[in-house]
Records
---
Amino acid sequence: MKLSARARAVKTSPTLALDARTKDLQAKGDDIVSFAVGEPDFDTPQHVKDAAAEAIASGFTKYTATNGIPELKEAIVSKLSRENGLLYEPSQVLVSVGAKHCLYNAVMALCDVKDEVLIPSPFWVSYPEMVVLAGAVPVAVSPDQGFKVSARQLAGRLTARTKGIILNSPSNPTGAVYTRSELEDLAQFVLDHDLWVIADEIYEHLVYDGYEHVSLASLSPEIKERTITVNGVSKAFAMTGWRIGYAAGPSDVIKAMGKVQIHTTSNPTSISQKAAVAALTGPMDTVWSMREEFDRRRRYMTERLHTMAGFSCQLPPGAFYVFTDVRDVLGKSYRGQNIDNDDQLAELILTEAHLAVVPGSGFGMPGHLRFSYATSQSRIKEGLDRLERWLKTLE
């Protein structure tokens, strides 16, 4: 059977593939410490779970409006106004099956075949594959120091086919956070060249060291009309499995995204939508407590990694990842086997040190590894101890 060119062109997600491999080894009895998947180890807040239980008990288990229940859309509108300085009508909001689904809907609604989309690297692994699925062309843009791109660098990759940009701040995999002035420069570039921006803000609440999260669309009415803001409840409220994301933007684009959704998934899960209402309208104390704990883990992991031979990393100002330069390790050998690239290094760390990390090649930046600190302090210590011992065996 011959698969479609579209299916053959799309790559497997390295993060999910590694997670599956890790779970397979764990099922066989191996004690694997995983720094691979971006999933908070905290439980979903109790008031959110209570809202879901109430939804089930009351029989709220049928189809809903495809683009989200009115109660949740109103909660999203209020949230965007209160926290991001963004004013939208419910008709300008789409609720989807996770922020990833919103991103896919946006790409499908905006991109024609052979359009080009600028994607700052390193990037989340799914961005270029979504563009490929739309028949468009992902164009990686290499960053300045601090893993952020400038308008000048974007201009260097601009062509007559450029349709827009996918911008992620705080960033996966680096934790980089764009400042207000940096975003203002990017916004002007977008307006000067009549582009679209898909702004992925899923990690907005996970910023540290006095950094401020700024929504690109809040900078001016003009850039708001060119921006699709994407967010969700997965990271901030430890609701990864609930699969609720949302997008806000100009009515015509949101309507087009909704048409794509009608013919793919229909409505997001009814019960999860009720839970998301509770998350967005309820207390934020669990979010801030989780952020404080992530901050402690962030500092510990970065300090430990920075002392390991051949590893170099920056203290990330956002998200829950440390993106580590391991190029000084490449070229060394383990038991006579040369380590030529980050994929090979990650495989050896998994099989020999029983620690799961993600190679940077999947994020568009070879020679790096991504470490997630979204796991307990004790497991972080155990995993880093294993890595440190194993690195001492290299020649």
Note: The mean pLDDT is 96.
---
Amino acid sequence: MKKILFIIFLVSGIISDAMAQIDPALLRRVPKDSARTQLNMDAVYSRPFLQVGKLPISLGGYVEANYQYLQENGVSEGHQFQMRRLTLFVASTIYKRIKFLSEIEFEDGTKEINIEFASVDIEIAPLLNLRGGIVMNPIGAFNQNHDGPKWEFIDRPISATQMLPATWSNVGFGIFGKKYMENWVYAYEAYLTNGFDDKIIDNSENKTFLPASKNNRDRFEESFNGIPLFTGKIAVKNKMIGELGLSYMGGVYNKFEDDGLTLDKKRRVTTFAVDFNTVLPQTGIQINGEWAWVKVDVPDTYTEQYGGRQQGGFVDFVKPVLKKPMFGFEKAVLNVAIRGEYVDWNRDAFKATGGRIADEIFSIVPAISWRPVAQTVIRLNYRYNWQKDLLGNPPSRLAGFQFGFSTYF
């Protein structure tokens, strides 16, 4: 870790010295494509980048940090300051229809360092483009469109981070494409990548937990069982109505064979998701929601706390209430927002009684956010969760305030 930090500081120093010697007139922001309708699948490139003169490399990133004071059942860890993440983007147009983009994220200081995206795109035709490398599996919308400055909420959605594995990426290859027809745009993505492992049912959470597979760093160099994970998505958007996305991700997660010896049957994990976003024309209210279903073939030897079926999602409502110059910022915006969340960790029933397993969490998060510019957000959230255990006992309650910022740079 000390070597990694040394390299980071060394590279940062070299870049800083180099930038200091560059004529500021050569620095320019690479404009985003605003002429066409953007989809969630475009989020990977729909970011502000800084380009130096005619160099083929563009740089960018974002940072987010916050303060929080939370209590769970009357017990608190006190006042906490958190450096959630620092993410760096490096992009290059190798040729006019060959692009490369990488996204490297440092979470909680340097507690976790992840390559979330590093792929080469080759454009053949609008409906046929090739992508290879470390790709972001397009399950739902948040997994692709997760940058902190785009959201009015400090915490990422529970369903997207604890039921689905947010920022879930793997090594693989695939195709994608889009077609424009007046006010409509149609798009698809399809990838074969390395996939999950048996940690989704053998983990410290003691429940079916798909994000546990993110800890397997070997997935970037080898498949756990030799069978690819398939992820596919179709999306349609109308400029006046909004965007609707349907996605699927499925594959075998267990090691069923070793050196020709059969260990178990092939056990599959399957996820479906639907996402929708729109802006109501009369009020300007932005609506963004996602719902997902997970099905896992859990061995009969596991106890009932490991659910074979899960479901959950979130919906955000964001209302701009004030758009005017504020404190010297000409296009500042003040928003009020609210998020509702729900996850059912176990949709199965007790075998002995037939009663419902009540392992679920509800959450509501009102928020106020101020955007001095579109790329920067300062946000105040109040989080209130209530969570029931397997037996449906009176819920555990968590509540408290969070305050922080997130900005592109």
Note: Residues 157 and 314 are 7 Å apart (CA to CA).
---
Amino acid sequence: MTNVPLLDLKAQYAQIRSEVMPIIEQVCASQRFILGEHVLALEAEVARYCASSAGIGVSSGTDALLLALMALEVGAGDEIITSPFTFFATAGTIARLGARPVFCDIDPVSFNLSPAAVQDFVDRQCHVQGGELRNRATGGRIKALMPVHLYGQSADMQPLMAIAKAHRLKVIEDAAQAIGTEYQGTRVGSIGDIGCFSFFPSKNLGAFGDAGLCTTNDAQLAESMRVMRVHGGKPKYFHSVIGGNFRIDELQAAVLRVKLKYLDGWTEGRQRNAAFYDAAFAAAGMGNRIVTPQAAGHGRHIFNQYVVRVANRDALRDFLTARGIGTEIYYPVPLHLQQCFAYLKHAPGDFPESERAARETLALPIYPELTREQLEAVVAAILEFHAAGQRRVLSS
């Protein structure tokens, strides 16, 4: 039996060990661990990679979102439109600041925030008061849009930006899974007011622990975030605003600088593996049993995850696990049905596409170091599962 983990970071580390360890030793020898030369260099390199004028290294992708919201002065009485089908931090950071997450359903093909759903919410449930967009039901001020570029594919940004412009909303791009993703030739993170990236180890560009970064083309916002990530102190010990401890570690920045040089090659590997899956499932005539990811024509999909839809998802996952094939469910419970958001008073059926995605989606191994044998093992196991199911149907 061929073992296929969902992710094998040891294989990646083996490629870069000879470069990473001397850099770590260099940082240790310098004993400068906070906001050193590697942080400054990484910020410039990632900003350039993401077509932004400024990068602000932070302690995690979650803190990137939190810092972006703080820099835009989001607080009590504000409401942020976002997706209910995403990692918890997207809405959790909004709630932590006393603001209210407003959920709109996803597009069933891309799994990203649906511009049509956002427009419908604005048209049906909002009105303009004093030049501000207000939620009729709560009275809250709609202050920003937070689209998520899920699984490595961009949300449909043109109509979302048009909605934001029409109503003077800020736009925070949750690009935690999308470094290098493009929309109509433009890198995500440079389209809205602030882009937020995660360098969690499982990401396409992963640190040796938690780390993140914010991008922006607004010099004032960049300066605000730099000050806020050090408790709002400028100069040191003098605080005109309240910030937090959101600094990226020098060691993480040093590791990420080594890895950044390999990122496009790793992304190409993920894209090749995705193409292999697409072709193999199509050749096997699985189109009516497994829905493979559909890359939109408007951009570059970096395949942070390769997520399929299947009607009997949980049974398939158990079958693959028994055969040594790793999978994951991103995400089993949409945010509007999480217990901590019960105060928003949502019920099952409120966002049907998000709920259906939570029932049907399964992430398959996609990391670039997968061998041909491993890819074939994944496909063969899925075909075996469906063949067994078909035999059961015929014999019943």
Note: The mean pLDDT is 96.
